[in-house]
């Protein structure tokens, strides 16, 4: 079953600190990009790497490996259920 954008946004909000100053359009773009990667069946390691880039470059935060692991597990687990 494919993961939808709302689910991706909810998982991101659960595991990452999303700055209040982040534009909703930017956040939706991140969620859409992740949704596409999940739909393309990225490997867990590749998805975690992409999440790392988004967290450090787009959100300008320090890398949180455990959060990225949890996000990847939840989103990839949903597609394999």
Describe the structure.
The protein is 72% helix and 0% strand. The protein contains 4 helices and no strands. It has helices spanning 5-15, 24-39, 44-58, 65-80. α1 crosses α2 (24-39), α2 runs antiparallel to α3 (44-58) and α3 (44-58) crosses α4 (65-80). The chain is globular, with a radius of gyration of 11 Å. The relative contact order is 0.21.
How are the SSEs placed, and which strands pair?
Layout: H1 5-15, H2 24-39, H3 44-58, H4 65-80
Helix pairs in contact: 1-2, 1-4, 2-3, 3-4
Number of strands: 0
Average residue pLDDT: 92
Separation of the first and last Cα atoms:
7 Å
Major sheet attributes: none
Q: How would you classify the helix and strand content by structural class?
A: mainly alpha
State the shape.
Answer: globular
Q: Helices and strands, in N-to-C order?
A: HHHH
- Which stretches of 5+ consecutive residues score pLDDT under 50? none
Number of H/I helices: 4
- Gyration radius, to the nearest Å? 11 Å
Notable traits:
4 helices; mainly alpha; 81 residues
Short description:
It contains 4 helices and no strands. The chain has 81 residues and is an all-alpha fold.
């Amino acid at each position: 079953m494919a993961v939808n954008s709302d689910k991706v946004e909810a998982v991101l909000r659960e595991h990452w600190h999303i700055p209040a100053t982040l534009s909703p359009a930017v956040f939706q773009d991140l969620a859409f990009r992740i949704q596409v990667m999940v739909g393309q069946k990225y490997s867990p390691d590749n998805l975690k790497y992409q999440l790392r880039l988004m967290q450090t470059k787009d959100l300008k935060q320090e890398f949180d490996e455990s959060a990225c692991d949890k996000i990847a597990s939840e989103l990839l687990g949903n597609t394999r259920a």
